[in-house]
Amino acid sequence: SRGIKSPAVRRRPGNSPRRQLTLVPLTLAVLQIVGGVLYLLMGGDLLVRGAMALARTARISPIVVGLTVVALGTSAPELVVTLQAAIGGYPEIAIANVIGSNIANVLLVMSVPALIYPMACDQPSARVDAVFMLVVMGVFYVMCLDGVISRSDGFLLLAGLVLFLAMQARTEWASDPGPGGRGDLPMILGLPTKRGTIALLILAGIIMLPVGADLLIDGAIGLGESFGIPNQVMGLTVIAVSTSVPELATTLVAAWKRQADVAVGNVIGSNILNILGITGAASLASLRELEVSSHFLTLDIPLMFASAAILTIVLFRKAAIGQRLGGAMLGLYLMYIFLLVSARV
Q: What share of the chain is helix, strand, coil (3-state, %, to 5)?
């Protein structure tokens, strides 16, 4: 891994990294991670609210808003963190965050709410999107075989994102309930109406997101350096789970309100957006090609594909993710984290 040495961790001659751990750098790293997550959550929420209020003021269709602002809102942490990592010279964190987030979205985000209420989705569009998700992951794996995600790969991924959004737009327009069908959305979200307030929300979100990304990346690198854990593992675990918090929160609320369709759609859409949009944007923003570790090809990407395949099979069988399957998925995720950390420390 290409992690930097944290200045807070000073190594003494003859001491191993594990014996040098002090309370101050560990506490600082944890505080940075917690603060980064909070900034990402608040920044994403403020940006979405401000953008939706601006769209309502400009009389933009709710369908367009849902396909762009809301979809990007829950993925804003992944987007900003991945871009910051790519631009900052940590390509292993950029790729690891995308892969780790997709694994967490299925095995963690779908399993925890299933322990509360069975997650069942019988929407034909969800099955189509799930198949598209598997195709996208297959293409992504092929792109990673040569060890890099190039700029040309990034253009292809972004082209795929345009195709996906076009598919979603066609589906949404076909099922549009008509004027007034979503009239209660602004009231539920409590969107502002004054232009000054709208601009303030958008500006605050734009400022808080990169600040949160910097804190999260610095904290994860510092924590990894303290324990001798590579940046790749931190990207697959701490950073991936942290940036998946919005998806987890959305899915928990959907499960509590018995809205499984929303939860499943949120996970599938986020997984597709992570690969097509976030990886594509990061490959273009990075000063060099995004390097793909061989470890990703042998364990992490296959598990990402397998977890997505499990969700797809459940959808086609029109079954529910209940407590038993949810517990098994959660157990698999915890086992993966344990093997990941123990094998690469």
A: 75, 0, 20
* pTM for this entry: 0.79
Q: What is the DSSP letter of 68?
A: I
Q: What are the tens digits of pLDDT across the range 59-87? A: 765 545 554 555 566 677 888 888 888 88
Residue-wise pLDDT for 86-105, tens only, equals 888 888 888 999 999 999 99
Give the Cα separation of 17 and 227 in Å (integer): 7
Q: Among candidates 221, 243, 242, 222, which has minimal Cα distance to 232?
A: 221
DSSP assigned state of 147: S
Number of Cβ atoms within 10 Å of the Cβ of 283:
28
Buried b (16+ CB within 10 A) or exposed e, 211-224: ebbbbbbbbbbbbb
CA-only gyration radius of the chain, Å: 20
Q: Are strands 320-321 and 290-291 parallel, antiparallel or unpaired?
A: unpaired
